[in-house]
Design a protein that fits this description.
The structure holds 2 protein chains of 2 kinds.
Chain A (H helix, E strand, L loop, with lengths): L9 H7 L10 H28 L17 H7 L2 H33 L5 H13 L2 H11 L6 H8 L14 H26 L3 H9 L5 H12 L1 H16 L3 H7 L10 H11 L3 H28 L4
Helix pairs in contact in A: 2-14, 3-14, 4-8, 4-11, 4-13, 5-8, 6-12, 8-11, 11-14, 13-14
Chain B lengths: L1 H9 L4 H28 L3 H4 L15 H9 L2 H32 L5 H12 L7 H10 L6 H5 L6 H12 L3 H9 L4 H12 L1 H16 L3 H6 L8 H10 L6 H21 L1 H11 L3
Helix pairs in contact in B: 2-15, 4-15, 5-9, 5-12, 5-14, 6-9, 12-16, 14-15
Classes of the chains: A mainly alpha, B mainly alpha.
């Protein structure tokens, strides 16, 4: 999520450059940066290189030997139905959570931002799930969606609708997890959209009013939405990255079940690497995961560099 | 009549405003219902949990029985203490390492600066799941798995903090730094005594961001911790939810309430910082 700022500070940097440094020994700068550089190399860059290298081997933790396999791990993944199932389930989750959380975030931001009273109250209420401990709240949600004693089913019954066994039905498990994901992410997206909304100059609305556009939904479609274009793209990509990393709810609530219907990419990787200790193929999965995340992040920074309004 | 309507509308109480409020309150209800249900269940007896009908209020109030049961079934306070220690340890090291690095990137010229910053930007995109395997292997070989150190070490470096503080330090006036140098104040002292205090709000926002992230993190503790007495809150919650053979829903919800409460309370007191933190991570 954090790459975001990259765009914002490009403009200022060229101007102020080299006003300071030359006067004093730059040695001190290395001392300032040294601890971070050491940590960067030891806890991040080296491990990434190692993970990449491991993905071409058959390394298993505890095994004595290690041999080079070339691309075997990757070709094995390509024909592994379990991996593809996890991949498909992850995409399905992303396809549910991203529209759900982006649209509800946008709707809430627009409605709350226009209010004269109660803005703070709504912001606090909608943001509360973002800060809550997801694992704890996930167990609450499992209870809410419980087939027999869950209040959601009580409500469905009261409305004369059929009841569902959300956590026992392979068809319903991803939607149930997506509901939890949307619940947690909507308030976060709302805050991002609110920041975008406050950046829209008020005279645009006045100009629109002069042109005879003063119904709220007309204003929304002619001014607000076009001006929110970059923000919206940003929120979509951030939400996609977050959704792609779905792990906690699966690990705690479903463990990939029922019948593998909620196996997701990170959970499959976790089992392969840390339960079966097959580091080689887990490393290959990690590289696939990293590639996806990097592509999304690249899109995001491109977008912010351009900062286009359309 | 029309005058009244105009006045109401100006105060945000016109018919349209009321409709918007009604709509938003439905969303508030959906958003907050899980919290309500969690607390409600933690206060009602097990018999009421399994009734087929819905009720808004405990019919028999069991006081803190469920909380007592939860605390006796699992060392919840220990989990929370672990969470505090781990979050504090991580945050302190993050601040001590990221602040000077960010300052160097913001205010000094040195060889390799562009490369370092490029690496910071790259690292921003890399989630913990990527270096996890080699870090785990390294910890296994050095015999340091299942320790506080193992819990904290991948997070000592926060590239996000470097990025954020660099941004903030860049706008600190150069003239003040020059003046301080002329007064003979050392570089480190300039940083910690003059520049850092001006970055208070950014540091507060980052601190909250960091604490929230690591209090709630499950992935890494799940991998490195095997002794329950070292588990931070989410892992503790997972243990608790797992052995549900003897655990009632009431105790489970009481445990959930206890483990979520600290962050909720911090949030309610410092929500400005939370929301500013999100905005800082997002669009400017």
């Amino acid at each position: 999520m954090s790459i975001a700022l990259a765009g914002a500070e490009h403009q200022g940097s060229a101007k102020r450059r080299r006003r300071l440094g030359a006067e004093i020994a730059p040695g001190i700068a290395y001392w300032f940066a040294a601890p971070s550089i050491v940590l960067l190399i030891v806890t991040l860059l080296l491990p990434i290189i190692v993970v990449f290298a491991l993905s071409f081997t058959d390394y298993e933790l505890g095994a004595l030997g290690i041999s080079f396999l070339g691309l075997d791990n990757y070709t094995a993944l390509a024909s592994d139905p379990t991996f593809w199932r996890g991949f498909r389930n992850t995409l399905y989750y992303v396809a549910l959570v991203v529209p759900g959380s982006v649209l509800s975030g946008l709707l809430l931001a627009v409605l709350v931002n226009d209010l004269i009273r109660g803005r703070r109250f709504y912001q606090i209420a909608f943001f509360l799930p973002v800060t809550s401990t997801l694992i704890a709240m996930a167990t609450v949600w499992k209870y809410l969606l419980h087939g027999r004693i869950g209040p959601v089913n009580h409500l469905l019954a009261a409305l004369g609708l059929p009841q569902f066994e959300f956590f026992g039905d392979p068809e319903l498990i991803m939607p149930a997890l997506a509901v939890i994901g949307i619940w947690q992410l909507a308030g976060f997206n709302m805050v991002l959209f609110t920041a975008g909304l406050t950046a829209i100059p008020a005279d645009l609305y006045e100009a629109a009013a002069v042109d005879g556009i003063d119904r709220p939904w007309e204003r929304f479609f002619t001014v607000t939405l076009p001006m929110l274009g970059p923000t919206t793209m940003f929120v979509i990509i951030t939400s996609s990255i977050t959704a792609f990393k779905v792990f906690d709810t699966v690990a705690v609530l479903t463990r990939g079940g029922p019948q593998g219907a909620s196996d997701v990419l990170l959970y499959t990787t976790y089992l392969e690497g840390f339960q079966y200790l097959r580091m080689g193929s887990a490393a290959a999965m990690t590289i696939v995961f990293l590639a996806i995340i990097l592509v999304l992040s690249l899109l995001q920074s491109r977008l912010l560099d351009r900062k286009v309004h359309y | 009549m029309t005058a009244l309507l105009t006045r109401l509308r100006r105060q945000g109480l016109g018919p349209r405003d009321l409709a918007v409020h009604a709509f938003l309150l439905v969303f508030v209800f959906i958003t907050l219902f899980p919290f309500y249900w969690m607390i409600l269940t933690s206060l009602r007896p097990a018999s009421e949990v399994f009734t087929a009908h819905f009720s808004w209020w405990p019919e028999t109030f069991v006081g803190l029985d469920n909380f007592r049961a939860a605390l006796s079934q699992a060392p919840l306070l220990r989990f929370m203490l672990n969470g505090v220690l781990v979050c504090a340890g991580i945050l302190i090291v993050q601040l001590l390492t990221a602040i000077p690095c960010a300052y160097a990137l913001a205010k000094f010229e040195f060889r390799g600066k562009a490369l370092l910053f490029a690496l910071v930007l790259f690292a921003l995109c890399v989630p913990i799941q990527v270096p996890a395997l080699p870090l785990y292997v390294a910890l296994a070989f050095t015999g340091t798995l299942d320790s506080y150190f193992a819990l904290m070490v991948p997070f000592f470096l926060s590239v996000f903090a470097i990025f954020l503080f660099r941004q903030v330090f860049k706008s600190f006036p150069d003239d003040i730094i020059h003046a301080a140098r002329l007064d003979g104040i050392g570089e480190a002292e300039i940083l910690w005594r003059i520049v850092v205090p001006s970055a208070g709000p950014a540091i507060a926002a980052f601190a909250i961001f960091s604490i929230t992230a690591h209090w709630n993190d499950l992935y890494w503790p799940l991998i490195v911790i095997t002794s329950p007495e070292l588990a931070p809150p989410p892992l503790g919650m997972m243990y608790f939810a797992d052995n549900d053979s003897g655990t009632t829903f009431g105790a489970l919800m009481a445990a959930a309430t206890l483990l979520t409460a600290p962050l909720m309370i911090i949030f309610l007191f410092a929500q400005r910082h939370f929301i500013r933190g999100v905005t800082m991570t997002g669009v400017k």
